[in-house]
Amino acid sequence: MNPIITLESPRLQWIGVSLSNPTTTAIPFGTTVVIGRNGAGKSTLGRIIERGRNLATNRVRTSATDLKVTRLEFNDIHSLSEGKVTYMQQRFESSMNDEVPTVSDLLPRLDSTGMATMPFDMTAMSDKRINYLSSGETRKLLICRALCGQLPDLLILDNPYIGLDTHSKAELDGALRHLASQGVSVMLLVCDPADIPDYATAMLPLENMTVGALVTGTASELRRAASHLFEPTAEAYAPQRIIPPTVNANVPVVEMHACTVRYGSRTLLESVDWRIMPGERWVLSGPNGSGKSTLLSLICADGPQAYSNDISIFGRRRGTGESIWEVKRRIGYISPEMQLYFGGGSATVRDVVARGLNDTVGCYTRLSDEQIETAGQWIDALGMTHLSDRTFSTLSTGQQRLALLARTFIKEAPLMLLDEPFHGLDATQKNTVRRIIDTIAARSGAAIVFVTHFPEEVPEGFTRSLRLPSR
Asked: How many angstroms separate the CA atoms of 350 and 353, rounded?
């Protein structure tokens, strides 16, 4: 059978970015995995196949002249509301505006007939306004929207499993198998051999912006073939801290009593009690939509109901005159929400990391030589030395995530809230970050909360857990 896509140009280009394609690459019908480390060129290839195959610089032959290609990459999951807000509290409070759509508004076929073609069962959240959706829930919605109309000939999903819990991941795999039975070819862009699904039959490796030779075989054979792309790096280390700890070992870092978050008839959290002592390491888990990020937003005072609940941070009751900067000064925080709206402007990676010491994004104060040097040490530790002078906004999603982790780690705060910290990282980087978290936890006595859907991701020494129920 003829391939669905053939890459014929020795060099493929997309808006100033080039991929080397040393030999003609024929991509077969069925399920193909495009795999490589962060920054290898996977998303660029996806964009070229979707929208750049008719450019004069790109000779890309398709199996049909009217080939319908649909691509999803989830960079702005809240664009569904046709507006973009900066902070979590603005997004929540915008629910007072009747123009914010519900899931059923965006899925006109959310009925017994249309559900047959949907990859996920969305009925339970049909009346939920989209600004209440978790990262994983919004991914489900975007995928359903892409598939509820005319089915494409080729569906390209960029990092499709990020943010999905185990059940949702299985649902997506089942839906993609079903699409294959209907003649839809699927291309999955992933950065971890563990994400190669059992039904994949071909793999296209990318390394250093170069398209490799297509590999075919069983899923286990493809995973073994991909492993060479993710060789371990040198032993990870964490630079010496520059800010001494300022925590009373006998005072809870966080104390929450019966914390509840409601908007109208929608309950996001209900009666949560939680006490975190200095040095404790917690795993926070729960299915998509259970309220994990909402709970952390209360601690950081980013949630609009952070001041209407019984919360004490470092022994001080929330709402007793402290400023937002006092709250954040002793908290290191990273989340998918933060990355979506970070921006970074024209700042370089070095500036973004260094300004984590001041909890700022813009150039409000001049960085000291010591701060710049410390930022460089963290950039080196995370293997990003070659990216230190790059503008943050030009990085791949995974590279941005790594830079924001360096920004989070740099002040080695006494409380670290790591909301899905491996979100978008490739297999090598996950191992590096895991070892750095181990080092920080062992030497600093920081209290750390690690949010994940997958127990195998949890670093060593995390002995306490809180699991939120499904909502």
From this structure: 5
CA angle 386, 391, 395 (to 5 degrees): 70
Do residues 292 and 437 share a domain?
yes
Residue 372 CA to residue 209 CA, distance in Å, equals 29
Tell me what the pLDDT averaged over the chain comes to: 85
Q: Which helix (H) or strand (E) holds 62?
A: strand 60-62
CA-CA distance, 194 to 177, in Å (whole number)? 18
- The confidence band for 236, taking pLDDT boundaries of 50, 70 and 90, is low
Q: Provide the domain limits for residue 348.
A: 254-467
172 and 47 housed in the same domain: yes
Nearest CA to 198 out of 226, 167, 176 is that of: 176
Domain assignment present for 378: yes
Whole-structure pTM value:
0.87
Going through 105-193 in order, the beta strands assigned E by DSSP cover 154-158, 185-190
Q: Which of 272, 301, 51, 287 is nearest to 154 (CA)?
A: 51
Q: Are residues 281 and 370 in the same domain?
A: yes
pLDDT in tens, 180-223: 888 999 999 999 999 999 999 999 999 999 999 999 999 999 99
359 class by beta-carbon count within 10 Å (0-12 exposed, 13-18 middle, 19+ buried): middle
Distance CA 340, CA 424 (A): 12
- Measuring CA to CA, which residue among 291, 303, 232 is closest to residue 266? 291
Tell me: the pLDDT tens digits for 264-308?
Answer: 777 889 999 999 999 999 999 999 889 998 899 899 887 778 888
Residues 333 and 408 in one domain: yes
As a whole number of angstroms, the distance between CA 253 and CA 111 comes to 47
- Return d(Cα 113, Cα 109) in angstroms, integer: 7
Q: Which two tokens mark 34?
A: 């495009």
Contact 411, 328 (CB under 8 A): no
- Where does 300-452 have alpha helices with state H? 324-329, 336-342, 349-354, 369-381, 397-409, 427-444
pLDDT at 134: 75
pLDDT in tens, 7-40: 999 999 998 889 999 999 999 999 999 999 999 9
SS3 71: strand
